[in-house]
Design brief:
Length: about 350
C-alpha cells in the first residue's frame, strides 16, 4: 500500500482528494493536515466521508509527512515552497496542486503571483504533471506540479495541433468559463450564492495568472515557439466544471482534424474525443477525471473551434493529482479514478 499524506485537508481540492483516495485500492491514508481544525475528525467536517475514514486533522509536521510515500499539497500558493523541501528530504515524494512549481522561470512566477519564489532550487527537478504530455518524466519524478484547471482544459485542446505544426504562433483565443468552486472554499463575497447565481461575468481580463502557465505549455508543444494567446476567464453559476471554447484560424487545411485528435488521444484513458460537431457539456464530466473534446472546423472560412470540458476539481486538480500518483508508483493509471460522471 502507498502511504499518503495530504497538507491542506479542508479546502475543496483536499476533500476531493479524500473522496477519490478513500476508494483507491492501493492507498493507505496516513495524515491529513489543517492548522485551524487540529484534532477534528475529518468526517465531522465532511459528512460525505462518514463510514469511509477515521482520520483526524493534525497540524503539518515534516517528520510525520516525510514518513509517507507521497504527500499531496492542496494549499494556497507559497505553502509548498516553504514545506516541500523538508518533506522531500525526509523521503516522501511530493505532488503539489498549487501553482508553486508550475512555471519554470521563477522571475516570471514572481511577476504573476506577486510574492517571492520560496524554492528556486527545487524548480529544475519539478515535473509539470500533465500526463498526456509528460508521462515518462512523471514516472521517476520526486516533485510534481499539478497543472491548473484552466491550463489543463486549454492545453489538451490546442496541443495536438501545435505538436503537428498546424498552428503558427498566431493569435489563439481561449474563452473559458469556470464554476465557482474554482475560487476555493475560503469564498470571497463574489462567490456567495447571492452574488454568483443568476449572473455571469468575465474577470482578470487584463491578465490572469494562468496565462503564463498556458503559454509555457503551448510553447513547449510548438517546439519552443512563442505563443500569442488571448485568455479570458469567466465566472459562471455552476458548482463544478470548466468549459473552454478555443479559437484559431487555419486556412486551406487539408488534414482530417478529427482523425488527428482521435489518433493523438487514442491511448489516453482520460481524454475523450467526441464525434465531429459535438457540443460537450460540463455535466458530462462532473465528478469524473475525463476531459471531453469536440472539434469544429469550417473549411470555407478556415475557422477552427475546439470545445473542451473538464471538472475543475477532478481533471482540473485532485483527479489529475491522483493520476500522477498512479503513474509515479507504477499503479494502474485509472486506479481510484473510474467514476462515471453524475447525471443529471
Ligand atoms: N479549486 C479549484 O478548482 C482548484 C484549486 N487549485 C489549487 O489547489 C490549492 C488548494 O485550493 P482549495 O482546495 O481551493 O483550498 P483552500 O484555499 O480553500 O484551502 C487551503 C487549505 O490549505 C491549508 N493551508 C492554508 N495555509 C496553510 C499553511 N500556511 N500551511 C499549511 N496549510 C495551509 C488550509 O488549512 P489550515 O489553514 O486549517 O491549515 C486549507 O485546508 C490552491 O493552490 C488552488 O489554487 C488548483 C486547481 C483547481
Ligand atoms: C473561478 C476561479 O476563481 N478560479 C480560479 C482558478 C482556479 C485555481 O485555483 O487555480 P490555481 O490552482 O492556479 O490557483 C482563479 O481564477 O483564480
Amino acid at each position: 500500500m502507498i502511504k499518503v499524506g495530504i497538507v491542506g485537508g479542508t479546502g475543496y481540492t483536499g476533500v476531493e482528494l479524500l473522496r477519490i483516495l478513500v476508494n483507491h485500492p492501493d492507498v493507505s491514508l496516513e495524515v491529513i493536515t489543517s492548522r485551524s481544525e487540529d484534532g477534528l475528525r475529518v468526517d465531522e467536517m465532511f459528512p460525505n466521508l462518514r463510514g469511509h475514514t477515521d482520520l483526524k486533522f493534525s497540524v503539518p509536521d515534516a517528520k510525520t509527512l516525510g514518513d509517507c510515500d507521497v504527500v499531496f499539497f492542496a494549499t494556497p500558493h507559497g505553502v509548498a515552497h516553504a514545506l516541500a523541501e523538508e518533506v522531500l528530504n525526509a523521503g516522501a515524494r511530493v505532488i503539489d496542486l498549487s501553482a508553486d512549481f508550475r512555471i519554470a522561470d521563477a522571475d516570471e512566477w514572481e511577476k504573476w503571483y506577486k510574492q517571492p519564489h520560496g524554492a528556486r532550487e527545487l524548480l529544475p527537478e519539478a515535473v509539470y504533471g500533465l500526463p498526456e504530455v509528460n508521462r515518462e518524466q512523471i514516472k521517476t519524478a520526486r516533485l510534481i506540479a499539478v497543472p491548473g484547471c484552466y491550463p489543463t482544459s486549454v492545453q489538451l485542446g490546442f496541443i495536438p495541433l501545435l505538436e503537428k505544426g498546424l498552428l503558427e504562433p498566431q493569435m489563439l483565443i481561449a474563452d473559458c468559463k469556470s464554476a465557482v468552486s474554482g475560487a476555493g472554499r475560503g469564498a470571497s463575497v463574489g462567490t456567495l450564492l447571492c452574488e454568483s447565481s443568476e449572473s455571469m461575468n468575465a474577470y482578470a481580463v487584463a491578465g490572469h495568472r494562468h496565462l503564463p502557465e498556458i503559454r509555457q505549455g503551448l510553447s513547449r508543444a510548438a517546439g519552443g515557439k512563442a505563443i500569442e494567446l488571448t485568455f479570458v476567464p469567466h465566472l459562471t453559476p455552476m458548482i463544478r466544471g470548466i468549459h473552454s471554447t478555443l479559437y484559431a484560424r487555419i486556412p486551406n487545411l487539408d488534414v482530417d482534424l478529427q482523425a488527428l485528435f482521435e489518433a493523438r488521444y487514442a491511448d489516453e484513458p482520460f481524454v475523450d474525443v467526441m464525434p465531429a460537431g459535438s457540443h460537450p457539456a460540463t455535466r458530462s464530466v462532473k465528478g469524473s477525471n475525463t476531459c471531453r473534446l469536440a472539434i469544429h472546423y469550417h473549411k470555407d472560412t478556415g475557422q477552427l473551434i475546439i470545445l473542451s470540458v473538464i471538472d475543475n476539481l477532478v481533471k482540473g486538480a485532485s483527479g489529475q493529482a491522483v493520476q500522477n500518483m498512479n503513474i509515479m508508483f507504477g499503479l494502474d493509471e485509472d486506479a481510484g479514478l473510474r467514476q462515471v460522471a453524475l447525471m443529471p
